[in-house]
């Protein structure tokens, strides 16, 4: 099992953008040390509200890569459907080269109808556009060139410069956003990123579908290393931890799931993520790992109000990881 962090960068009420981003930078540079047994850090993409103030996660990853030496850093969910695929490929290839293979390309389709329309994409062909964009990006990263001729893109063969440092391009993960994406990923043996906001039943259903699809199409997934995202807030006072998470998530849940009961959704997240006292986090995370078959756990401590408390929890978890190293 490997461990890393992910950053949603929600701008809390009463805080500035600078403070939000500084907390990410401070936490990433803290764990970029041989003292810590965290391997990765990922940055989330979000648009048009303070419920995630990074619209360009590859850009943020590039900044963090320049500050660090050990960590592998990447985009958690670069939305490839609403960006030009050649641009994504150029940026990913450049970071792979300049970081000497430390960049990770985590990507996603577009889940927001508003963003699809805003960026002038057709909702009715969402999955087809996503797949077309991926093929261009993957061709560019694995061969250095792309020459698409499909319903969405048709342009001459171009070279993506600089070509990647890594032999087959940077490591890739795709967000498990729908059954269509999960089945598509299984056919390509692409590892999934399971979303912290999905309930455990959904995550398990996607994991089963992934395995079933791979078996059906004869795809070897023995080396696939899915990753599980987990909201973490630990406190000696369980109620304090839960209330901090409720306050942190309330605007995002209202924005993203307007058709759902907000409190019910947040209570489910609290129950199934690592939220509560120092004894509360283990069982829920262990169960999610078992249900999804994940080999990587990504944690977000951003709901915790005190950055000093975050360091204390990171130190505590780091000691537990160290104790269980082979």
From TrEMBL:
Keyword annotations for this protein, in alphabetical order, are: Flavoprotein, FMN, Luminescence, Monooxygenase, Oxidoreductase, Photoprotein
Q: Catalytic activity, per the record?
A: a long-chain fatty aldehyde + FMNH2 + O2 = a long-chain fatty acid + hnu + FMN + H2O + 2 H(+)
Q: Which GO terms describe its biological process?
A: bioluminescence
Q: Which GO terms describe its cellular component?
A: cytosol
- The source's domain of life comes to Bacteria
What SUPFAM superfamilies does this protein map onto? Bacterial luciferase-like
- Which InterPro entries does this chain map to? Alkanal_monooxygenase, Bact_Lucif_Oxidored, Bacterial_luciferase_CS, Luciferase-like_dom, Luciferase-like_sf, Luciferase_bac/NFP
| Any Pfam family the entry gives | Bac_luciferase
Entry EC number(s): 1.14.14.3
A single GO molecular function, which one? alkanal monooxygenase (FMN-linked) activity
Where does the Luciferase-like domain lie? Answer: 1-265
Entry keyword Flavoprotein? yes
Q: Which Gene3D superfamilies match?
A: Luciferase-like domain
Subunit relationships: Heterodimer of an alpha and a beta chain.
What is the role of the protein in this entry? Light-emitting reaction in luminous bacteria.
Q: Which family does it belong to?
A: Belongs to the bacterial luciferase oxidoreductase family.
- Recorded protein name is Alkanal monooxygenase
Please report the organism this UniProt entry assigns to the protein: Aliivibrio fischeri
Q: What is the lineage of its organism?
A: Bacteria, Pseudomonadati, Pseudomonadota, Gammaproteobacteria, Vibrionales
């Amino acid at each position: 099992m490997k461990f890393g962090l992910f950053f949603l960068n929600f701008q809390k009420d009463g805080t500035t953008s600078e403070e939000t981003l500084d907390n990410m930078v401070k936490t990433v540079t803290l764990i970029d040390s041989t003292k810590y047994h965290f391997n990765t850090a990922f940055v989330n993409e979000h648009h048009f509200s303070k419920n995630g103030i990074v619209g360009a996660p590859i850009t943020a990853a590039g900044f963090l890569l320049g500050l660090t030496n050990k960590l592998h850093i990447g985009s958690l969910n670069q939305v490839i459907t609403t960006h030009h695929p050649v641009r994504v490929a150029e940026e990913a290839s450049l970071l792979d080269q300049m970081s000497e293979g430390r960049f990770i390309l985590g990507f996603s389709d577009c889940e927001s109808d508003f963003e699809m329309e805003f960026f002038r994409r057709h909702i009715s062909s969402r999955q087809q556009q996503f797949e077309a964009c991926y093929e261009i990006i993957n061709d560019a990263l694995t061969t250095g060139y792309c020459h698409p001729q499909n319903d969405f893109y048709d342009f001459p063969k171009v070279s993506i410069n600089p070509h990647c440092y890594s032999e087959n391009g940077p490591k890739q993960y795709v967000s498990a956003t729908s059954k269509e994406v999960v089945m598509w990923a299984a056919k390509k043996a692409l590892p999934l990123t399971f979303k912290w906001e999905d309930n455990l039943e959904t995550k398990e259903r996607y994991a089963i579908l992934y395995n079933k699809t791979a078996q059906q199409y004869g795809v070897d997934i023995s080396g696939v290393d899915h990753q599980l995202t987990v909201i973490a807030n630990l406190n000696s006072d369980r109620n304090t931890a839960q209330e901090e998470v409720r306050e942190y998530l309330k605007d995002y849940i209202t924005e993203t799931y307007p058709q759902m009961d907000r409190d019910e959704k947040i209570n489910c997240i609290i129950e199934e993520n690592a939220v509560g006292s120092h004894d509360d986090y283990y069982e829920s995370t262990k169960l999610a790992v078992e249900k999804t078959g994940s080999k990587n756990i990504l944690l977000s401590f951003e709901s915790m109000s005190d950055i000093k408390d975050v360091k204390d929890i990171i130190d505590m978890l780091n000691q537990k990881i160290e104790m269980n190293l082979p």
